Amino acid sequence: xxxxxxxxxxxxxxxxxxxxxxxxxxxxxxxxxxxxxxxxxxxxxxxxxxxxxxxxxxxxxxxxxxxxxxxxxxxxxxxxxxxxxxxxxxxxxxxxxxxxxxxxxxxxxxxxxxxxxxxxxxxxxxxxxxxxxxxxxxxxxxxxxxxxxxxxxxxxxxxxxxxxxxxxxxxxxxxxxxxxxxxxxxxxxxxxxxxxxxxxxxxxxxxxxxxxxxxxxxxxxxxxxxxxxxxxxxxxxxxxxxxxxxxxxxxxxxxxxxxxxxxxxxxxxxxxxxxxxxxxxxxxxxxxxxxxxxxxxxxxxxxxxxxxxxxxxxxxxxxxxxxxxxxxxxxxxxxxxxxxxxxxxxxxxxxxxxxxxxxxxxxxxxxxx
Length: 369
Hints:
Elements: E1 8-16, E2 34-40, E3 43-48, E4 53-59, E5 65-72, E6 89-95, E7 98-103, E8 108-109, H1 119-125, E9 129-130, E10 138-147, E11 150-153, E12 156-157, E13 160-161, E14 163-164, H2 173-178, E15 198-205, E16 208-215, E17 221-233, E18 235-239, E19 249-254, E20 259-266, E21 269-275, E22 285-289, E23 299-300, E24 306-311, E25 320-326, E26 335-340, E27 347-348, E28 353-360, E29 365-366
Parallel strand pairs: 14-18, 19-23
Antiparallel strand pairs: 1-28, 2-3, 3-4, 4-5, 6-7, 7-10, 8-9, 10-11, 10-14, 12-13, 15-16, 16-17, 17-18, 17-19, 20-21, 21-22, 22-24, 24-29, 25-26, 26-28, 27-28
């Protein structure tokens, strides 16, 4: 992937968050800690990985997005750890009148503080591995169009209801299905920043839901899980058997050791935002998985079906690409990119505004072996 040209930034879109202060436990304002994005009509829905909420911004007359509205998800779905439990939302996708949401499904190890004086205590803290039950959420919420292009999440609208896979304080449905998986089972109890199991990408077509994993990366291959979900009871999604006795398909893609950070369908092709795994720093890329919507069996995807669309500009310790969305008004193939840890020149601390990039990808070219 090193032979690609850097993507050209053709525009920037200001995103202004005015309603973040009610989130009491946040150390940083929302605009510095974005983890997921999706668009429907004139609305951008975004998430911060430290909350159990989604944020809605509305397109304003000047092309920026503001009029921030904060939606606490515990009012719309049942969360085992309630409104204060971190969901670690890493994927959003608007499809067919629903807002789909996925948490990381990952465990975490305590991180020592840089200024911690008691090194023995810091070492002991690092023995702790936490499982936070809200992180295992995968579900959808109806979107109600109150005015043209303006959508609001609701627990129900007519026959459409919020629904999700079964959660539990000890194990979720997805964990149960993956426990015996020879590739992924051994990684379920490993913290995400140590190449453990970590969902960061989400894409939806009808009742098919694709989950892109930041980890584990297996011999240079990233993993995409592919489920078929239907609502079988109030508040409940269930996965059909799609691959023998399994309730998921499993696709491995040669990403040269990079993990998946987000995904979005462009027609039948799946665009993959990929970047470093664990806590590593390095460049990020947009890849195209040709005709992904028609893959109906588990397997390793042929390398010639994976094309590098763009390499994103890279700065050490800042501007970590976290989300991708189609941006057709800027031209065919244009994409919106949002960042975690935005560079200072990208933010306005007085107005809680951050600039998202609209990129024009370079001409797609197949990866070379």
